[in-house]
Amino acid sequence: MVILVLNCGSSSIKYQVIDMNDASSKLLAKGLVERIGLPEGDLKHKPVGKEPFALHQPIPDHTTGIRLVLDALVNPEHGVISSLDELKAVGHRVAHGGEFFPQSALVNEDTKDKIRSLFEIAPLHNPPAIEGIVSIEKVLPGVPQVTAFDTSFHQTIPAHNYLYALPYEYYEKYRVRKYGFHGTSHKFVAREGAKMAGIDINNSKIITCHIGNGASITAVLNGKSFDTSMGFSPLDGLVMGTRCGQVDASAITYIGDKEHMSFADLNNMMNKKSGMQGLTGISSDMRDIDAAYNAGNEKAIVARDMYYARVKKYVGQYAAEMGGLDLIIFTGGVGENSKELRESICTNMEFMGMKFDREANMSVNGDDKILSTPDSKVKIAVIATNEELVIATDTYNLVKNL
Hints:
Elements: E1 2-8, E2 13-20, E3 25-34, E4 41-47, E5 53-57, H1 62-74, E6 87-94, E7 105-106, H2 109-117, H3 126-139, E8 145-149, H4 159-162, H5 168-174, H6 183-197, E9 205-211, E10 215-221, E11 224-228, H7 249-259, H8 263-272, H9 275-280, H10 286-294, H11 298-322, E12 327-331, H12 332-337, H13 339-346, H14 358-362, E13 369-370, E14 379-382, H15 387-399
Parallel strand pairs: 1-6, 6-8, 9-12, 12-14
Antiparallel strand pairs: 1-2, 2-3, 3-4, 4-5, 7-8, 9-10, 10-11, 13-14
Helix pairs in contact: 1-3, 10-11, 11-13
């Protein structure tokens, strides 16, 4: 079954085409549509086994962008299917499912209404997802669609971990609580890591570290999310590229009062002007921070030390919450590529039963790998995440018997 996986942003569409069956999966193509709604847009299409294809033209809306993707998929030179009839389903990544969706769901009017009802708490992420769904209804009418939510995996978190110590009426009225994000990534790497380490996922204590420009850590207890660092929004928890992460709320109200800032101004400051960018004034990209760190820039040194230390704090916290630890996994752009981050987090952790293999860590080159010594009680791994495969798998399982 050939499945198109879409991840629609406000001005972009990431996509993969995956051929699924009960026993295996095969990537056929992937690509990116960018600068939707701007005077000039871009399509970058990468078919497996063929030369990549690029297009530069105005792309006024998501429907136009998706039409261009579909044209590329059936093109005689760089296409991967002979007809759009071969596309049997479409899976969508949706950031926020609230409390409505503990698992992926078939698209119907009720599904769309519930996603729309969450626009207010996910204004940057959910509206583009609906754009993608409606666009597919226009260009591939009748093709079944599935929504996979970043929040679904975290719906197993117990109340004592997802509630905030605020007046309970705000949870009752507005559902203000921890939701968590990056769920498809945490779910995927926890399962892959357990297989690699020879651990029974249903009897395990795993910490998954998805570290990128956005970053979160999850305590996975017996295969289910038990706690996670992101909260009501993706702002909470770790220091990130432009997000501040965990901070005393009184510091924010104090700054707002002194600077005469509106709620919108404060939200923009915390989400887009803080984190590594705000601390250093250099960049939100850890590669730039690493270069400044190595050059002796004092702000970069303090910022990177803070970035690493916050990850380590959560590892200790979640190991304590679960009553131990069997496996820690690094994934995401920084987690998969930064040898320095992995070594910093795993150094001086022998008291937890963690023995780090520095030579194995230095030789990581895009491959999934065990980074602990054979006698380490806690296994350490780096695993490339594959959220699209999770979405395609859920899509396949929901539509194969329709």
